Amino acid sequence: MYKSCYLAILLACLVLKSNAQQYQIEFFGGISNYQGDLQPHIFTFKQSRGAGGLFLKYQISGHFTARAGLSAGSLYADDKFNRTYLQSRNLNFRSQLVEAQIGLECYLINIVEHKFSPYICFGIAGFHYNSYTYDQQNRKVYLNPLSTEGEGFPEYPGRKKYKLTQLAIPFGEGVLYRVNCNLNLSFEFTQRKLFTDYLDDVSTTFIDKDVLFKEKGQQAVDIAYRGDEVPGGTPYPPEGYGRGNAKQNDWYYMVALKVSLGLFNCNTGKFILADIFGGRSRGVGCPKQF
């Protein structure tokens, strides 16, 4: 068993090492934000939160690089920063966000022959979120279980429960600068087309207050409409009154500064992380052959 594992590692190293300069590991840091019923701007730094991630990349040619990776960030929006006529609704949400994606970068200029190129990127992703808010006693309340718009209720058969893990289509653009054969720097903006309007738990209209109370209790009623919490606020609206804009799904986006390292040092042939942390003279390479 151990010999088989060793052989598998050896084979993987030999395959990678034969294409040393094509494989890269990429780290990024930046911000995440969202666009939806509580934050209508296509792009803004207001209410943004930190984001970061890790990608494994394979340079197919001077014009194309495949990539796969994991990203993490957080989302936040509050009606108090929304358009004036929506501030009295007084809703807000927060969510941690985890995303896995595969995709392709397409360089407009051959990056092997030149040091700089703009590029576009696109792919497919799966993401997980779980939006929540805080009640008036500052207790954390997850929104999905409350069915604030009647999702899953027999009285509203057209409103299905929304899933917290879904697919997305990421796409965007960036600029890349090749410092040397081991190191690339890039700056990237990517949006995600979503297939849900419930990232913020707001989509359609208010349901009957009594039905919501019967199905989910007083907490759901309190969270579904929070205009009565502000001075001069109005009571819970009548059934059918607009709560969100169901004509447009939500989006989220990330702005990132990225650093890509060749997985193997193009000068020494050793693992790049071994060169960084262990010193060039004693870097760890692939297992020796028998």
Write up what this structure looks like.
- The protein has helices at residues 2-18, 209-216, 218-224, 272-278; strands at residues 23-35, 49-59, 64-78, 92-107, 116-129, 132-134, 140-142, 165-178, 183-194, 251-262.
- It is mainly β.
- The protein has a single domain (2-11, 20-282), classed as Porin.
- The strands form two sheets. The chain has an eight-stranded antiparallel β-barrel. The protein has a two-stranded antiparallel sheet with strand order 6-7.
- α2 (209-216) crosses α3.
Keywords:
290 residues, Porin, two-stranded antiparallel ribbon, 4 helices, disordered C terminus
Please sum up the structure shown.
The chain has one domain: Porin, CATH 2.40.160. It has four helices and ten strands. It has helices at 2-18, 209-216, 218-224, 272-278, and strands at 23-35, 49-59, 64-78, 92-107, 116-129, 132-134, 140-142, 165-178, 183-194, 251-262.
Looking at the structure, the CATH topology is Porin
Total number of beta strands: 10
What are the low-pLDDT stretches, counting only 5+ consecutive residues below 50?
1-18, 280-290
Give the proportion of residues in helices: 10-25%
Biggest beta-sheet profile: 8 strands, antiparallel, barrel
> CATH class, please?
Mainly Beta
Mean pLDDT: 88
